[in-house]
């Protein structure tokens, strides 16, 4: 019997081993560079249009340079002031010098007056009146108090000292119905101005109700579509996707026509004898829910349909053949396998609905406006970017918390447990 001799492998020379390792590293680096080059345009796009605006929004919510930039000498003179008695004469002299500089054309007293007016109503007129009267004759303290007695009141100086830093928690605290007292301690805001927690709660509640109604309507429709043939299911999906091809404003205008007292819905109900008087379906919470559910149905149906289409119908039939009641088989076998689609649809619909602005503004009443309405109000009407960005940051935080809960509850890729 012929046998071949087994030769031991020859050792690779050290120089060749180093060269092979170097070439391997270069090859791996080239592959990584190619992969990075492919995703670089998308990464830059996301960075420019997504991350940068969010960072600017968060920065504007704590940015407060008006007092710091307009009254630098005054802020420096108030450093170390205990805020319990009127400041020294040097602070009055610094204030007069700073306001004189603003009125000389090198600054903007309007931004300063607007910012301090957020702290104390009437501060705008005080700044404007003082700036117009400059320069003053005599010692600055006596001259300023003689011009306006408010310069001899402690709260007006405390407002300057409290807002002297370039960054402030004022807007974020106000968005949570909190405030800082004159000594920097956080306390509850004035009950007459404490509205933003209620607005946030209303926003979340409207989002929850609209999401649940959308889920209740979309689930049976998605299930029915998943049981149809491919041709019939495609027709159903085309009907579901039709709203995507229509402007939101057009759909809202159509709902205004349908829901008004003399609209098609009330006219049909009156003609059929179901009701005796028109229903109040417009400019209230009912109209908001109807329009929201109509707009958000595709966002719920599509995730549900994609998951339901992949569930083999044989599972439920097998459970029934083993003696399970049809409803019990559906509830305990089929429903758990749709959790991923339900979670994705609920997350998508809820996050979208809590950011609604147009629908509540056109179809709802004063008590149906959400956080987005007040963001637009502070942006376009009051021009208070700090408060608008603070409310936006609050809405972003609520969204991130919701997404974190979703990540813990709905584990992607986990198989549904069939019992």
From TrEMBL:
Residues in ABC transmembrane type-1 domain copies: 200-406
Membrane topology: Multi-pass membrane protein
Keywords: Cell membrane, Membrane, Transmembrane, Transmembrane helix, Transport
Gene Ontology CC entries for this record: plasma membrane
Location of this chain's protein in the cell: Cell membrane
UniProt xrefs under InterPro entries: MetI-like, MetI-like_sf
UniProt keyword Transmembrane helix, yes or no: yes
Membrane-spanning ranges: 35-58, 204-223, 235-258, 264-283, 288-308, 342-363, 383-406
Protein name: ABC transporter permease
Lineage: Bacteria, Pseudomonadati, Pseudomonadota, Betaproteobacteria, Burkholderiales
